[in-house]
Structures are given as structure tokens and as C-alpha cells.
């Protein structure tokens, strides 16, 4: 189990995590470009600027731990171990995609690594997490469930219902609120009562901690502790990871509502450069980092090329995996 | 006449009604700055203030429930749900509360609200953002269900829905937001609810449809015309109450009925129309609707779901053969 509360002593592990962050950043940049080039359609919610949260959380999970996500799920998926190549194929709607092209960006899932799905409906992942934890209990397993939710999502009833339920039954759920302070075009502070997400969790008796989500080391060490406690039966806990959405709500949002000063400040706190600076200070040389970046960029560019040239699924595929009893039949291409 | 989009026409209708009646207001996510997902609320918050274009938290049950409460207490709210898929988070407030309050309370209550929930395929937004659940609400006593198909309809029907004293489920089609059409700005009158429109006159068969599928049916009628087949196309506009007279008169004249909708055929509202016509007139009827699958993401899969003009034309030819 790759648990460490003292990441600073393990440069090799930091490099590994930094590489994951690079993969997410490159994947998201490429997804945005492909969207603007008209190669990817629909809604592409990029995770740019929040990479350290998913990576820091998931580095402390086992493959068989479960994850539920939201609309901004690419980073969560990659961090949990989903294959970015299959994800890119999915975004392009091609054969070999994570969901055979049925789901697209908002429905990325990889059950082989416990990633139970991104979600197009805000906060629906909260209640699903509670149920997954009930199953874990019933099966007498020591797995845990992590639910990623945004600061906008906490105002939906299912979030509050899930907190209450998880605590009443002391379920092994880690709620991770990625607080980027905005929900689509709305500053969440303006539509959220009370003293914030952590207090909200505490009012249910759920331990909650607020951390700098853009600090990989803080995310990692906090998660290592909290995950160990949950696995040992502490019941649910919540981590509020403060962060900033560096791009629009989705790829086609120019985010004109954003204060440029705020954005500039946020760029100074963004996680890639901070992690890189730490590596440079701790004996990893600039050439090695440059090589790592080039390698990752090349890897992702390769996936884009492959996806752009991959086969489209056959119309018949639209009719599979609906249900067993009463399965629909493909009426044929020539109807 | 002014040319404008379906979204602009809706905005105009809402603006006119808000100016006309200070009790009209709207609540929903991202209405102020964003102006709604298609600009259908653009600048209305600046014009009417934040108490009449209310930005809400992401709290669908409360958006719908608050609209019910506001209507019971004397105003005329529009609950903007953004996607009919998200309105599913507030079905109880709509179906158990809004639809039944007048009846349960013996006529003491009225619920003059609009539950505005866009439907349909827009291209690549997949299973949780593309559904057409109009039949769910047409099935629910107490609700009016409206499905505008053109810019002019979207303005006129929205106005009527806002003035209606019953709860109205107002289902714009997301694929139509950018559709251009003529709107007569001088004519301020709403389009009456429950009245269909004949969009193509014909004598061989009656095709009934609504929302985005009306345009596809009209395209099919044009294809058929080239083959010497005269199809009448009726846009229902209001699904409940639907315009029985218009449909029955047409089907009695043409002797055949085909109902076409984007929503899943099984349990779809086309079944209701077809059955009523068959029972009343005894003429041959048929339905075309989506297969019973979720809406997929990838282009060829999504295309496999859609009902295209050539398929409608083919079905018509089978019926006339
Ligand atoms: C139930 C529901 N309501 C509304 C939406 C539309 N929507 C998608 S993302 C979003 C904002 C979410 O903000 P937040 O939870 O803070 O996550 P972030 O986008 O900041 O990561 C909204 C309103 C939705 N998908 N589901
Ligand atoms: Mg947010």
C-alpha cells in the first residue's frame, strides 16, 4: 500500500506523482484543443489547475478502493489508474473508448480500477458512494469509497442526505470537496449559507479538514492519515481541498466573468509549477524534468493521433448493454 | 416581422410578460451573468433586478419546490431547470405538489408556475443531458405540457404558459436554440395553449409531431411531395391538452395517421394520439419514435437513435402501399 505521510523524504515517489499530474495536464490541454478543432464534441470540463488533488488523494488509495466523481472527472479517472489512451478514444467517440463511445467526457469510468464513473448530474455521486460503502460493509471488506464533489454541488440535497447517512451508519466514505470557489459562472460564496463546507460536515459529526489542494504534499499527507483512519473504522471524513479552476467551466467557456487579477494570483499558486519547484530544490535536475514533460506530451499526442484516426463504432453498438431482460434489438442500418 | 432565433424569441416573450406583469419572475442556476444556457435570459437581470431574475444555488428540488410555494402565495414563477434531465431531481415537487395542490385542497389553491425544462438531442451530450421525457408529464393529471417548435411558437407559447393559471411544463428543444424564424413583434398576443398548427397541408396522410421533430417531418413531406405524395404535417405544439379536433379532422380527411417523435416510442405520447385516432376514426395509424435505448455519445451511435426524414418518408410509403 503506497502510503506515506513523509513524501518529502521520497523524491522518487514525488516524481511518480508529478508524472501523473503531467499526464492529467497534457490530457486536458489536448482535450481542449481537440474540442476547439471540432474533433471532440459535447461538454469537456477540464481539470486544469487542480491536478494535485486527484493525484494526492488517489496515491493513497488501493486499486480496489472505489471512487465516484462528477462532471469534471478526467483527472480523477487518470489518478485512480484509468488508461488515458482509452479515455482519449472515448472523448473522440471511437472504438476502444472506456465506454465504447457510449458515454463521452461526462461518463468516463473504469471499473477495473474502482472508478465507478464520472457523473453528469451534480451530487448524485454522493448517495451512490454511501451505497457502495454499505456493500463494502455487507461483504466485510476493508475497502473505502472516495466521493469527489465540487463546492457548488454541496448545495444539493443528496450531499446533505449522504453526509447524514454515512455518519449514522459510520460508513467508510471519504468526501473530498474540491473548492475552486465557483460553480459554472456563479461565485459559490454568494449562494451558500453558513461557514462553509467543513462546518457543514462537522455539524453532522463528521471530521473535516481544510487544506491547500494545490499543495501536493499537504494533500498527500492529509489523505494518508485520513484514509488510514477510515480504513480502521473512523467512519466518514471530509477533506476540503482549496483550489482554483484555471479555465472556463468547460472548454467552450471563455470565462469572461473572471477577475484577471484573481486569475493571475491563482496562477502563482498553481500546482504544477509548485511541485516542479520542489523537485528542482530536492535534487531532481531540470533536464530530467524536461525529459519527463517531453515524454508525457509525446504520449498524449500519440493518443490524440490514434483517437483521431481510430474507427467509429457501428450503429449497432448503440443497442447493446441496455438491459438483459427486454434487450432492444438493432433495427438495422437501412431502416 | 423580425428574424430571430428560437432562444431570442423566448427571451422576448419572457421580457414582454415580465414588463406586463410584475408578479412574473424566474429562478434558476446561472441566469444572471450567463443569461441561461442559450442566452434566453440575457440581460433580464439587469433590466428587472435580482429579485425577479433570481440566481439560485445548485438545488433543483428547492428551485421547483420554491416555485410551487411562490405560486401558492401569489406570484407567477418560472422554474428554470436548464435540462429536463436535471428536472428529474425535482419530480416530487412537480408531480406530487404542483400538479395536485389545486385538487387535493379542493380548489383553494392555484399553482400558476412554469417548469421550464429543455429536452432533446443537441449533439454529443449523451445519456444524462439529451432526454425527452414529455410523456412522463403528459401522463400526470394537473399538468399542461408545451413543446414549441419554432421561434414564433417559443415566444407565443411561453407567453401563454406564463399567463396560464395551471402549472405548465414548458419543454424547449435544445437542438432548436439557434433556429431562425420570423417573429411579429407588433403582435403581443400569446398563442393559445391546446391549439395545433398545420405546417404542411396535404391530402394523402396526416403526420403529427412536435418540437424538433416537426422540422424533420416537414422535410419528409417535401421529399414525399417530389414523389407525388401529399402529406399533411401537424405540429401539436401543446401535448396536453392536445388538439384533438385538428388531428381528428385531418386524419378523417386523409384517412391515415403517422405520429413521429424523438422521445422513446415505447410508452411515448405518440401511442396516446395514435390510439385515440384509431379508436375514434378507425383509420390506419402508425408511430415512429426513438428506440428504447439511452441517448449515446458517439456520432454514429447518436445518429442510429434519430428519426430521419427518409425514415419518415419510407414509413409513409409503406402505409400508402
Ligand atoms: C443536478 C444538476 N444541476 C445542474 C447541473 C449543471 N452543472 C454542471 S457543472 C455545474 C457547476 C458545478 O460546480 P461545482 O460543483 O463547484 O464543480 P466545478 O465545476 O467547480 O468543478 C452545474 C451547475 C448538473 N450537471 N446537475
Ligand atoms: Mg466549483
Structure explained in plain terms:
The complex is a heterodimer of chains A (335) and B (321). Chain A has helices spanning 11-36, 51-58, 74-80, 84-91, 124-138, 157-168, 197-202, 216-231, 260-268, 271-281, 286-309, and strands at 66-68, 145-150, 173-179, 182-183, 186-187, 208-212, 237-242. Chain A is α/β, with parallel strands linked by helices and 335 residues long. In chain A, helix 1 (11-36) runs antiparallel to helix 10 and helix 4 packs across helix 11 (286-309). The radius of gyration of chain A is 20 Å and the shape is globular. Chain A starts with 10 loop residues before the first helix and ends in a 26-residue tail after the last helix. Mean pLDDT of chain A is 96; it is low at 1-5. By secondary structure, chain B is α/β, with parallel strands linked by helices. Chain B folds into two domains: 2-183, Thiamin diphosphate (ThDP)-binding fold, Pyr/PP domains (Rossmann fold); 197-320, Rossmann fold (3-Layer(aba) Sandwich), CATH 3.40.50.920. Chain B contains 13 helices and 14 strands. In chain B, helix 3 (60-72) packs parallel to helix 5. Chain B is globular. Chain B starts with a strand and ends with a helix. Classes of the chains: A alpha/beta (335), B alpha/beta (321). At the A-B interface, loops of A face helix 3 and helix 12 of B. Bound molecules: thiamine diphosphate (TPP) and magnesium ion. The site of magnesium ion has 6 residues of chain A, from strand 4.
